[in-house]
Amino acid sequence: NGAECWCGDELPADRVVGRKCSTPCGGDGEAVCGGRHHASVYAVDGSVWGVPAHTYEGCYADRKWDRALAVLAFKDNGCTVEECLAVCAHKGFAVAGLQHRRECWCGDSLPLRRYPDNMCRMRCRGNTHEMCGHASRLSVYSIAE
């Protein structure tokens, strides 16, 4: 609710994505402090839990009949690059890709056909400062082990 702080030694097993954690913190309106029946989880150093080390690999082709990354992790209007990376890493994948402003895809290897980066120019719905692919194109990131 933006006014509570809880501590623990283990991360919760259930992770939700999207706007369920969108309440501004009472002491800092720039920070996010959970939502109704949901908590934003942070590591001791203050970073958001679950965002792995990663490298942007580029803009890649994707087709409905021949998916470049096999697993649709989630489709959400609150999609961000960080959320997609965290979900794919948590599921054990080596690659994360964002498409059409709100889709997060996961896979084990980089797609084959690369486009110029300016062809992945749709802004993420959850953070308009980030790019989330385009129609039939993925903004692709490799996840460090």
Structure description:
With 145 residues, the chain is mostly beta strands. Helix content is 7%, strand content 22%. It has one helix and six strands, in the order ββαββββ. Strands 2-4-3-6-1-5 form a six-stranded antiparallel sheet, covered by helices on one side. Residues 45-49 have low confidence and may be disordered.
Structural class: mainly beta
Q: How many strands, which pairing sense, and closed or not: the largest β-sheet?
A: 6 strands, antiparallel
Coarse shape: globular
| Count of beta strands | 6
Number of helices: 1
Relative strand content = 15-25%
Backbone CA Rg? 16 Å
In whole angstroms, how far apart are the ends?
Answer: 34 Å
Can you give the mean pLDDT? 82
| Spatial arrangement of strands, main beta sheet | 2-4-3-6-1-5
Any low-confidence stretches, pLDDT <50, length ≥5? 45-49
Oligomerization state = single chain
